[in-house]
Design a protein that fits this description.
Largest sheet: 4 strands, mixed
Distance between the termini: 33 Å
Structural class: alpha+beta
Strand content: 5-15%
Shape: globular
Oligomer: single chain
Radius of gyration: 16 Å
Order of helices and strands: HHEEEHEHH
Number of helices: 5
Amino acid sequence: MADNMTEAQRRRTMSHIRSKNTKPEMMVRRYLFRHGFRYRLHVGTLPGCPDVVLSKHRLVIFVHGCFWHHHPGCRYAREPHSNQAYWLPKLKATEDRDTIHIRVLRNLGWRVIVVWECELKQDPETCCRRLLDEVVNGYEPFVNCRN
């Protein structure tokens, strides 16, 4: 299937896609802050540059977009129809990189939570409550990453 945008239009569209401070990430951060947690953002010295780092709890949180991180079984993680020679290896490399970062962080003694965009879209309150439960109690009820 051919792309319905010119190269310039596609470049402009893609340049507006955020990698930091996305809506799902902001939801998680606001919820944590409202409940008294203080955190650091996008710590580049940790593998994968986690979105939220709670050093006191040795906990990192990744807020992943379902398309960009290819959430298994999610309807938002569809394969692109155009330019598959470019997109499929790119999405696979992101998946592999995520798995490595999570494994390294755990080996360094960090707890890792992956919050998926679709979970926040479907039921943000329940998702954030479960996240809060993980932070407080150390229970990982919804880490469904690939490792």
